[in-house]
Every structure is written in C-alpha cells, then in structure tokens.
Amino acid sequence: QVELxxxxxxxxxxxxxxxxxxxxxGFASGFTLDYYNIGWYRQAPGKEREGISCTSSTQTxxxxxxxxxxxxxxxxxxxxxxxxxxxxxxxxxxxxxxxxVSDTYYSSTYFAKIGCTYENDYWGQGTQxxxxx
Length: 133
Hints:
This protein has 133 residues and is mainly β. Helices cover 5% and strands 44% of the residues.
C-alpha cells in the first residue's frame, strides 16, 4: 500500500515562499516514484479541489494557469519525494494542499493534453497553506 505524507505547509505573508514535500513509501519491490504520475492538488473552503501541478512517469509537467510561473514541481527519485516550490504566494493560494500518485501510463502527448485531471490511486492527508498578512 502506497503511503504519501505531505509536509511544509504553514502561514506565510503575501509575496513569500514555501516548499511543500510529499514523501512516498510502500511501493512494490523494484518500483520507485519514477514509475508514477505525481500531482499536487488543493482545495480551498467552499471550492472544488483543483489540480495545480503534475508530472508524469514520462517527465511531462503540467501547471494550472493560476500558478504557472510561480510554482515548480520536482521529484527526488532517490528519496522518493516530490516537492512543490511555491513563490510569490497570494492570499488566493490559501488551501489544503494534497499530493497524489497514479500508476497509469500516459504518453507525453496525452498527459500534456489532459493536465492534472486523470484519476489518482493514492492520496496524502494534506497540509494547510495560509497566505495572509
């Protein structure tokens, strides 16, 4: 059973930065995070959950327009950890942030087309990010 644990959330002033981490474990023998599509999602109070950034097993990366140019997703395969670097944070970025993984294979072309809308197999418990002065 794959387990995902997010960390790094907190309270930050507008314009500030945070780096979220998602540590993954429980992969089947011989498998690492490289075999999975990984995404960061967020849900603000009263709003639907949205996919903000994801990267495929074929190294294709997608970003929501709302975070493009400010957020960067990356993975450290040796540590089985995925990161979300968030810069120039805005009050509207306030939400619970979740990481999720999918083991479905998507070609680079198709992944770029669908964004982060694919179905995930495992989810973390979430970490709160609050942007406020």
